[in-house]
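Researcher: Here's a chain I'd like modeled. Treat it as a single chain, no partners, no ligands.
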Amino acid sequence: MAKYSCGDCGMEVHPISCGKCGTELTHVNIEKDDGTTVGVAECSNGCGKIKSPMCCGHDMAAAD
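Model: Modeled as a single isolated chain. Structure tokens:
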């Protein structure tokens, strides 16, 4: 399970759960077609994934 935090203001989000099945989402990095990576929160039951949360205008960092 991941805890997301903002490096600017210290806001934290933990845990984030899937709206379909209730499972806690886990942080994973996926590779885009251009070779760059992006962090997402993913349901381990395969329901889907969302982009990592944002705060203060940038992506929040994930720490397990």
